[in-house]
Write a structure and sequence with these properties.
With about 130 residues, the protein is α/β, with parallel strands linked by helices. The protein has a single domain, classed as 2,3-Dihydroxybiphenyl 1,2-Dioxygenase, domain 1. Helices cover about 30% and strands about 35% of the residues. The protein contains 3 helices and 7 strands. The strands form 2 sheets. It has a 4-stranded mixed beta sheet, with helices on one face. It is globular, with a radius of gyration of 15 Å. The two termini are about 25 Å apart.
């Protein structure tokens, strides 16, 4: 039985990586188990780790679900200086999405459900409502 997910990204400059990901996630880490390693619980049971090291090549993207992709993109462009972040959609896909990279080459992205009822059901399921 799988009950949690952990994804790790590596950054060559830990101090800058810590600040960058704290801004991306809009909060401080939930755990700092040791030097040059931090963890955020993004949603219950879903963790993102940032560690000092050599970024993995061709990994990702790790896409995070948001309720308003345009607003989040605008915030990240302003606060993190992300310059390449197009929002895409296709008729047969039930979400809008976009991909960008952190300063170390890790691929990340955001997505937003087009069906707001489906989005609300997903959020309620995560919250246990």
């Amino acid at each position: 039985m799988i009950f949690e997910i952990t994804n790790q990204v590596r950054v060559t400059d830990f101090k800058e990586g810590y600040k960058w990901y704290a801004t991306l996630l809009n909060k401080k880490p939930d755990l700092i188990p040791h030097d040059r390693f931090v963890e955020w619980e993004i949603i219950p049971g879903c963790w993102l780790q940032v560690a000092e090291g050599t970024p993995a090549e061709a990994s990702g993207p790790l896409r995070l679900g948001v309720t308003n992709i345009k607003a989040e993109r605008d915030r990240l462009v302003k606060e993190l200086g992300i310059d390449e972040f197009e929002i895409h959609s296709r008729e047969e896909v039930s979400a809008k999405w976009g991909t960008f990279t952190d300063p170390w080459g890790n691929q990340l992205g955001l997505f937003e459900y087009l069906d707001k009822k489906e989005e609300k059901n997903c959020i309620n399921r995560i919250l246990g409502v």
